[in-house]
Amino acid sequence: MAINTAIAMKAKAHNVNGNNGCLSEGSTESNSPSPPPSPRRHLQTGISQCRRRIRSKVQAHFRRENLTAGIFLRWNIRYLLLLPLLYISGLIMCVGPFSALLQPSLPGSVYRSHELFAKLWPDIAADNSTAIELSSVWKFKRRLKMQRPCPNSTARQHFAMNEESSGPNGYLIIEANGGLNQQRSAICNAVALAGLLNAILVIPHFEFNSVWRDPSEFRDIYDEDYFIATLEGHVKVVKELPDEVMERYDYNISSIPNIRVQAWAPANYYLGEVYPVLLEKGVIRIAPFANRLAMSVPPHIQLLRCMANYKALRFSSPISTLAHKLVDRMIEKSSRTGGKYVSIHLRFEEDMVAFSCCVYDGGDAEKLKMDSIREIGWKRKFKRKDRVIIPGLNRIEGKCPLTPLEVGMVLRGMGFDNNTSIYLASGKIYKAERHLAPLLQMFPLLYTKESLATPDELASFEGYSSRLAALDYTVCLFSEVFVTTQGGNFPHFLMGQRRYLFDGHAKTIKPDKRKLVALLQDMEISWEAFKDQMEMMLTESDRQGVMVPRVRKINRKTSIYTYPLPECGCLLSHNSSLKLTHTTSMPESTR
């Protein structure tokens, strides 16, 4: 019996230790007696084996993880070393001294227009057989939709209610910065903002610009009394602050706290942030004010913009008198084409060429000259480490100003012959004698304000860039064809004014410079093939001239100064007397 019991206990102990599971050291079964010494040794052996198996599995797992991490780290290090090498090699290929050896120049990246002109000149000179008639340049017509009447009465009631309830909320002072048309933008936006805040607008002050260097004030450029009278009933405008307000600030406008406003600030921002300050102080000053009001504003505020730009802003008497004389003289000199002429806004002044960082045909001397101008005008702006200048890429992207030669080739290719009268609106052309020579070859009837006006007539304008620009603006405004070559505020405002005057058509040629530079570098192109491309470009300009942007409610992204429709359409189609405000003082022949 004892023997059987001992055997049974031994077998039970053997089964427990021989199990696949692992017991922790010292573990026991609660209902079983303690095992004899020999089974204890077997238990310790089993536990050791289990520990070894666990350690080996853990070590194998860590080895696999370390191996994976090591491979991943090594690949990361390789990439970290490779990326800078790729970046540096890319820079060397694109802008380094060996770029010409490593890759051919892209179409349009090199200025060769002068070479192409020399090659094609015999064909250009002989080609007057397909001359285009100036009276039939524009094929597309815009059928103006019936517009709702201008919300003049609604606007008047809106402002009248404000004035009856509490009167104006205070005075608004703005400083218009920039050149002629940037200042114009600030003035129109100030009128709109005064309406939004129910404020009295003080005639805007013009900030002296270090580039334009024109000390002119508002009354020197625009008819101040006409501006005030035209906006009467919509926005109240005064020439200066009253004495009681000036006295509070020691008769120094700069002592009035200035509010800094972000660019393109929406109407809600002004109502939420600026309006409370106006109520508290009774007067606010915002400087600078260029592009400080979003294009999307409520309809009755947008109407104020339209009225300011297309009705209220009329050039001062000295400017308009001489400008109208220049228009008459251009008409007289355009007798071969029925009194119609082409105007070109050419941006090929020395500082513009330098700022563009484009390379023409002047070689090393031109490069040194442009570097010097950039250093004087913009200090070290163009030498920052983060600024990479690639002239060829600028040209491909259409950022280079067109030369007089290139503009001439475009117009001759479109069908304008050498009997066409050309008015050139520009500052001082870079190396004028050399660059204007080929344009004069193609268009002998070439005029400027300097050639149309007498020295005595221009004497009072000398040194005033904005007044001179106003002369150019007026002569371009009444041309049958306007050519823009570089963008900027001048052509944008002019295109809007021309749409306003010419039933929604800008009558503007805007060459596709990205396409053009590739054609002008193609030394294999024939004159007939070049003409075909230019005629297509003219057709596209004609089509774009009547385009109207889609405006949903008040979500406008394009400039109302370039695209007056649809918001200003009521002024355009329903009130012809408003449309003539720019021409009422002009001779009948220029209307």
Could you characterize the architecture of this molecule?
Strand 10, helix 21 and strand 11 (508-509) form a beta-alpha-beta unit. The protein has helices spanning 2-17, 37-95, 99-102, 113-126, 152-165, 180-197, 218-221, 224-231, 243-248, 267-281, 299-312, 317-332, 350-356, 363-378, 391-396, 404-414, 432-442, 449-452, 455-459, 465-477, 489-501, 513-521, 527-545, 569-573, 576-579, and strands spanning 171-176, 200-202, 205-206, 237-238, 258-259, 283-286, 342-345, 422-425, 446-447, 481-484, 508-509. The strands form two sheets. Strands 1, 2, 3, 4, 5 and 6 form a six-stranded parallel beta sheet that branches. The radius of gyration is 39 Å and the shape is globular. The protein is mainly α. Helix content is 53%, strand content 6%. The protein starts with a helix and ends in a 12-residue tail after the last helix. Helix 4 packs parallel to helix 16, helix 12 crosses helix 20 and helix 16 (404-414) crosses helix 23 (527-545). It is built from 25 helices and eleven strands.
| Molecular shape | globular
Distance between the termini: 138 Å
- The Rg value, from CA coordinates, equals 39 Å
The biggest beta sheet reads: 6 strands, parallel
- The proportion of strand residues reads 5-15%
Q: What are the segments in which pLDDT stays under 50 over at least 5 consecutive residues? A: 1-45, 94-103, 573-591
What's the average pLDDT?
A: 81
Count of individual beta strands: 11
DSSP helix fraction: 40-55%
Structural class: mainly alpha
Number of helices: 25
